[in-house]
Amino acid sequence: MLTFSVFPSPKVSDTVVEPYNATLSVHQLVENADECMVLDNEALYDICFRTLKLSTPSFGDLNHLISSTMSGVTCCLRFPGQLNSDLRKLAVNLIPFPRLHFFMVGFAPLTSRGSQQYVSLTVPELTQQM
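Below the sequence we write its predicted structure tokens.
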């Protein structure tokens, strides 16, 4: 089972029980998930502020960023090709020990929803975004 989990941040938290929910759910992720892609809520907001230059990011902006990342990670599972894979092969190649199955994901190029068609990035800009 592949999961995408957004971990809360004290700087961005608007609910008192977010840290408790995250703490209590980690045990279930360790025991029952095969691969966990971890997303940091504070890092998502920082990406929206600094890279995408959004003054007040909405949940739609954060969800767009997360969905782009999820699409990139699962691309090899959804489309045929030479790099075609399944969840078992992905787990065998990425996980050295059974309990070490938490991954931080990275994605580039980072573009806002309205400017995807108009952005031209150089190689140094792409590597800086990673």
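The mean pLDDT is 81.
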